[in-house]
Amino acid sequence: MRRKASLILLALAVFFAALSPLLRWYAYPRLAKIPANEYQTMVLEAKNATLLDYGSMTARTVPKVTIVQTLKGDVEASEKIEKTAGRDVVVWDGLSYVQGPDGKMVSKVPERYIFDAHTQEPVHATGEMVDGDPVRREGIEFKWPFLTEKRDYEYFDAQTRTTAPIHYQGTRTFRGLEVYYFEQTVPWTKVAMPRTMPVAGITPETVAKTGTTRWYTTVRKFWVEPVTGAPVYGEEIHQEELRGGTLLGGRAKVTAFAGHVKMREDYIEHTVSVIKANRTLVLLLTAYLPWGFLLLGVLLMCLSLYLEARSRRPDGPTAAEPAAPRPVTA
Questions:
Q1: Is the CB of residue 88 less than 8 Å from the CB of residue 82?
Q2: Which of 96, 182, 207, 312 has its CA 20 to 30 A from that of 14?
Q3: Nearest-angstrom CA–CA distance, 227 and 149
Q4: For the segment 193-209, what is each residue's pLDDT rounded down to a tens digit?
Q5: Who contacts 216 (Cβ-Cβ below 8 Å, separation ≥6)?
Q6: Which residues pair with 253 in a beta bridge?
Q7: How far apart are CA 208 and CA 191, in angstroms?
Q8: pTM (2 d.p.)
Q9: Within 10 A of 238 (CB to CB), how many other CB atoms are there?
């Protein structure tokens, strides 16, 4: 019986030892992915910000500017692109909606972001755009890869439609989570006018005829949870200016928007709770189960060897050999 039990334990040990690397290097790359039907909303605020009054074309300080960012997965578009791309694809339709303290729209910029569900690398397909302009993204946007590394990444800036490094600046603790801090500075750059303007009758084309141009700079900051690659918090020190042209009445420039944009507290709490739950799922595939199965395999192997050694040991002392008969002598 000990011999049989030993063989069964040995088979189980081999099974769990083989399952450990399979989970980490085969199952994890296929199972860890962004769902195609993802939907999320984020609210950010810039308090005591500077905002352009388009009626008087002068900048004024306002109590608050609110930015609502929405990302919605398009499952039908994802499935269509997957047929030709040959991999799992996510299509996010994003909208950045900016409103002033009175609740009126300041600007709204739609995006279509197409990327690999596993690696978050851009997938170039028809429909990839920012504010109606076709783009060809390079680098990440919105989300870092699973198991983010301590290094710089290429990050796509939707305003300039260009890609530049976003720099790893160190490891920090945020709301009980170990996070990687990244920062990117976009220098003053001439950018396109939003297609949807806050004043009826004014379009990018009519502004262009006046010779006035729009310029933008920002310092972008992200605190990224490295296991999931999801930002738990973000900030931007954002500035926009209108420069030159007859629209400004002879002035060289006027501030269109300037403010320190931060995530609203309730959305920080929600984001942290969601990321903590997703982090556990990723760690199950990358650490907990692989290492647990490997340890279990080693323990089963030791138990198997122990039982095998016991089975080869005699159960008790053996009886002495009877002595050979000796002739009887008188």
A1: yes
A2: 312
A3: 9
A4: 999 988 888 889 999 99
A5: 159, 160, 186, 188, 189, 191, 238, 239, 240, 241
A6: 243
A7: 12
A8: 0.88
A9: 22
